[in-house]
């Protein structure tokens, strides 16, 4: 796979996108896309709260890797599908920072299965991971962003619109999430809060990329010449958080190197 570009905010690249001092909460932030988003925002000078649900070891590693960036980072363990834990997390944000400027929902769940013979309980779990943080948290998040400008960005997938093998749970969940993004965008635009989503196809996860042969075939089909990386998604999320992106409302921005354009 092709190497990723250098991270803005590292030595030699002072780009901060006007995000210095912003307070950002990222769900699912200690691995994968969530971690890439947290790193991008911290490199741009934001104070980032890394939410995670399971691995303390992943959280400790993430904080070590974020140390020394322009912004700051703390990690908090909370299952954001739990209304009680989500409320407690947002209450701590208010107590510690006084407000929230950016909320990025990257936490997800995936139970591989076909559509015929799907397990309803696992489908509901995937739906819960996609929807519950915003369904339960929208009011409190909007209050923390009072007066704006605020940014809510959800991470979606091309599986919301295409039938990906054994992806029925997150596919349905991401389609519902994109619909929720549109509804929230309409209701929160008047409060100077922009709500959008970023979607992609299969990701290059380095050595952890499953089915290398299939990944190589998709990379060859991608006009950009490689698979999308978590950092590519983080770059687009960060752009949606800038002041210049304030008039983008309720959109799903696809970042896939042009793969979705292929017939």
From TrEMBL:
Question: Highest taxon of the source?
Answer: Bacteria
State which residue ranges cross the membrane: none
Q: Which UniProt keywords apply?
A: Oxidoreductase
Q: Name one Pfam family in it.
A: adh_short_C2
Record bears the keyword Cytoplasm: no
Which protein family is it in? Answer: Belongs to the short-chain dehydrogenases/reductases (SDR) family.
Protein name in the entry = SDR family oxidoreductase
Question: In which organism is this protein found?
Answer: Streptomyces lonegramiae
């Amino acid at each position: 796979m092709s190497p990723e570009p250098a991270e803005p905010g590292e030595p030699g690249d002072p780009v901060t996108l006007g995000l210095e001092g912003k307070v950002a909460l990222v769900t699912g932030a200690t691995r994968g896309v969530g971690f890439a988003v947290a790193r991008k925002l911290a490199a741009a000078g934001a104070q980032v709260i890394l939410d995670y649900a399971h691995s303390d070891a992943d959280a400790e590693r993430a904080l070590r890797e974020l140390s020394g960036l322009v912004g700051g980072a703390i990690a908090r363990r909370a299952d954001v599908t739990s209304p009680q834990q989500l409320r407690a997390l947002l209450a701590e944000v208010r107590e510690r920072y006084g407000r929230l400027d950016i909320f990025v929902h990257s936490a997800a769940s995936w139970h591989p299965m076909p559509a015929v013979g799907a397990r309803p309980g696992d489908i509901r779990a995937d739906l819960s991971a996609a929807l519950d943080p915003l369904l339960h948290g929208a009011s409190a998040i909007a209050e923390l962003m009072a007066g704006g400008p605020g940014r809510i960005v959800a991470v979606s997938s091309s599986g919301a619109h295409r039938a990906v093998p054994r992806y029925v749970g997150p596919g349905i969940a991401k389609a519902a999430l994109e619909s929720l993004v549109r509804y929230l965008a309409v209701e929160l635009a008047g409060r100077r809060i922009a709500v959008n989503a970023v979607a992609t196809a299969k990701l290059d996860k380095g050595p952890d990329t499953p089915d290398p042969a299939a990944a190589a075939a998709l990379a060859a089909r991608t006009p950009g010449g490689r698979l999308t990386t978590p950092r590519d998604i983080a770059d687009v999320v960060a752009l949606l958080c800038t002041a210049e992106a304030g008039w983008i409302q309720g959109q799903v921005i696809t970042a896939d190197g042009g793969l979705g354009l292929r017939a």
